[in-house]
Amino acid sequence: MERPKKALLLISLSVLLASSTWFSGTAAADVLKKIWGLSEARSAWLTISVQIGFIAGTFLYALFNLADIFNARNVFFTSALLGAAFNAGFALLSRDLSAALLFRFLTGITLAGVYPVGMKLISQWFRSHLGWRLGVMVGALTLGTAIPYFIFALGTDFNWRHLMLVASFLAVAGGLIVKMGIDDGPYLRESPHFDARVAFRVFRFRNFRLQAFGYFGHMWELYAFWAFSASYLAASFSRSAGRPAGQASLVAFSVIGIGIFGCALGGWISRFIGEKAVALVSLLASGLFCLASGFLFQSPSGILIPALLLWGIFVISDSPQFSALAALTCPPEYTGTALTIQNGAGFAVTVVSIQFIAWLAQRIGWQWAFTFLAVGPLFGAAAMRRLRGIKPTHLT
Known about the structure:
By secondary structure, the chain is mainly alpha-helical. It has one domain (about 5-180, about 195-385): MFS general substrate transporter like domains (Growth Hormone, Chain: A), CATH 1.20.1250. About 75% of the residues lie in helices and about 0% in strands. The chain has 21 helices and no strands. The longest helix is centred in the middle third of the chain and has 32 residues, at about 205-235. It starts with a helix and ends in a 12-residue tail after the last helix.
């Protein structure tokens, strides 16, 4: 196998394995709600704490230019191992919500050295059709975040703590693959000097700023949809005796996991129509699903499940395109920092949307809660329509 293709395969596999710790708390939420007596809003913090940790981590990594000053493979390896350790702490040491939130927060910090750094590793190996290559990697990330749902769907008779340890073992394997399985890419740039201002100066550039606004709109919807798809499905299934609520985790895994095809397909199509077009179409299609979610809630399984699977494709198909657009419109010598700061700001948006949807669901129910996610993709689409003349830029 050619070295670039092998690198793409191994980096994507590593991201898939290392990101399995991301939704481990979310997948365990239904069990922990019963054990610890949590409300919907309180259990949502099992997801929100990871997002806040990721935000803190991205600002920390970006402020100190860690992914640019230090070897990216070493940063990924160290972050994956620490993430595995903190997730194991969540599994073995949490006796109440407060302890669980601390470990989920710490796990989130380490994920800032997995997702954005994985994108930088890809950019070290490829210059052309970056949206296609990042599509493969982000697809792997998507499947990785769905793994905890799959673990729970197949292991309902096991202790939830033991199931969470599986994710930690997978994260260790992911870190080892990057550390030992690949070399530095041919487009590895000489390490730049430390500049804390870079994390903020990249937003001076109009094209970087506009695609970032598109990304923020995408993020308003994405993680709230992922985090609550099982709750939405369980509420819908409970309306009918013929719909077993226990299948909600397995269907949620499928809805999230199918995004790997959305990322790959969107990346492949971007080779012909460009990253901007794929992102714009994805945002509009996903926004329409948000608006239709209340009606889908009452639909038969034969309509509801295929519709959610299609939504699961469009909700993530634009994500790698935004990463490619960010890489194309930021200073190339600080690609890692720019990708990290954009991710951090985007995940700050998810904290608001996740808590808002959880609060909303308690008051109006799950049938119409997802409708309000449409604000994000429609705002993002408006920003993307203004994006013109994408060319790499340099800080001066």
